[in-house]
Automatic annotation (TrEMBL):
Highest taxon above the source species: Bacteria
Catalysis: reaction(s): oxaloacetate + acetyl-CoA + H2O = citrate + CoA + H(+)
UniProt cross-references to InterPro entries, sorted A to Z: 2-MeCitrate/Citrate_synth_II, Citrate_synth-like_lrg_a-sub, Citrate_synth-like_sm_a-sub, Citrate_synthase, Citrate_synthase_AS, Citrate_synthase_bac-typ, Citrate_synthase_sf
Organism: Sediminihabitans luteus
Listed name of the protein: Citrate synthase
Active site, renumbered: 267, 318
Length: 378
């Protein structure tokens, strides 16, 4: 690929690597200090000390909520948990051959079509839509997993927090406190990560003055890919392929010899380790101990150690999140939709930020095709 003057219109940075395209106040990724800040707060501290609901408020409004603000947000969120009939019917009508991410994407699109305020881009309307979407997505994900298991819909409960209700509607059982805590930590860690591929997608769509649902529908599509959110599923598929810790090194050698990307490892921004991994790994360790699944913990370590030795590449958040979701009881194909239910907060925070200081996102390309030529007369 050719490259001309640095910073000039002819300079090409494949994959926009290292390109700063705009400012943001939502989060800061600092690869040097290996940190991720949501509105200034270290994400690992938020995971330890706050609920996912408080983090949602923080990402949307810039500050952690006061008790009154949290109470008001809670009432609104709980009142929008139930699936609209048309969305329930859509989920139940789609073939189970469809990937759950396709189901979520379709549901978000339908929610947009059903919402008479979809094209109202005022800050109040955008915030209301973001809150409703966040509230309803667990119901979509839960129903989709249940129907694939031949189970009926479980109605949401308004006496449970976001994470607990998500587990309740998925499994129809009172969730154990350690399961709620582990799931909530994952939701906090997944909620936001600056200009990642799906968030940037949402911002590009917003920049055309399109609506919030269109931006989120497109973002779901971007997140589905295994180089992005789809990696958490692929980690569990690799674990199933490997089987046990003693086979991890040989499996890795074969995979690397076949030039396969090892899912759950590497990151475009972090080159010295993903700042979210230690917190999620500690959470996974708790789940491993609780479920008596030392074998899974050993497999995790064996593959990570072999990857560090062979390639010097460290895990990203999807590596511990995949087995954690497995231990929580989710089907592997449901892992990326869980990521959606969390990241929708970050996406919509960015939609609102983009809206507030918009410029159409329209980069240039360098043409390398056929030179100008005459169209033959026929
Ligand atoms: N497995 C094997 N090799 C890898 C991996 C990996 N997971 N990640 C990077 N490399 C190698 C590449 O092959 C390349 O080697 P080369 O220079 O010899 O060709 C080198 O490291 C640089 O890798 P790039 O792909 O150019 O790095 P980039 O910044 O573009 O990629 C990415 C980042 C896409 C995340 C990559 O590491 C990858 O594909 N990882 C696996 C998918 C994954 O886990 N995605 C989740 C991302 S985090 C998230 O969404 C929560």
């Amino acid at each position: 690929m050719s490259s001309t003057a640095a910073g000039g219109p002819g300079e090409i940075r494949k994959g926009l690597a290292g390109v700063v395209v705009d400012v943001t106040s939502v989060s800061k990724v600092d690869p040097e200090s290996n940190s991720l800040l949501y509105r200034g707060y270290p994400v690992q501290d938020l995971a330890e000390r706050t609920s996912f609901e408080e983090v949602a408020h923080l990402l949307w409004h810039g500050e952690l909520p006061t008790p009154a603000q949290l109470a008001a947000q809670t009432v609104t969120e709980r009142s929008h948990r139930a699936l609209p009939d048309a969305v329930r019917d859509l989920v139940l009508s789609l073939p189970t051959t469809a990937h759950p991410m396709d189901v979520v994407r379709s549901a978000v699109s339908l929610l947009g079509a059903l919402d008479p305020t979809a094209d109202d881009t005022s800050p109040e309307a955008e915030q209301a839509k973001a809150g409703r979407l966040w509230a309803v997505l667990p119901g979509v994900v839960a129903l989709d997993q249940r129907r694939r298991r031949g189970l009926d819909l479980v109605e949401p409960r308004d006496d449970l927090g976001y994470a607990a209700n998500f587990l309740w509607t998925t499994f129809g059982e009172e969730p154990a406190p350690e399961a709620v805590r582990a799931f909530e930590v994952s939701m906090v860690l997944y909620a936001e990560h600056s200009f990642n591929a799906s968030t940037f997608t949402a911002r590009v769509v917003t920049s055309t003055l399109s609506d919030l649902y269109s931006a989120v529908t497109a973002a779901v599509g971007a997140l589905k890919g295994p180089l992005h959110g789809g990696a958490n599923e692929a980690v569990m598929e690799a674990f199933a392929e490997i089987g046990s810790a003693d086979r991890a090194a040989a499996w890795l050698d074969d995979a690397l010899a076949a030039r396969r990307k090892i899912m759950g490892f590497g990151h475009r921004v972090y080159k010295h380790g993903d700042s979210r991994v230690p917190t999620m790994k500690a959470t996974l360790d708790d789940l491993v101990a609780h479920h008596g699944r030392a074998d899974l913990g050993e497999l995790y370590d064996a593959l990570a150690d072999a990857m560090a030795v062979r390639k010097g590449i460290l895990p990203n958040l999807d590596y511990p999140a995949g087995p954690a979701y497995h231990l929580l009881g989710f089907d592997t194909q449901t892992f990326t939709p869980l990521f959606v239910a969390s990241r929708v907060v970050g996406w919509t925070a960015h939609v609102m930020e983009q809206r507030a200081a918009n410029a159409l996102i329209r980069p240039l390309s360098e043409y390398v095709g056929a030179p100008r030529r005459e169209v033959p007369r026929r």
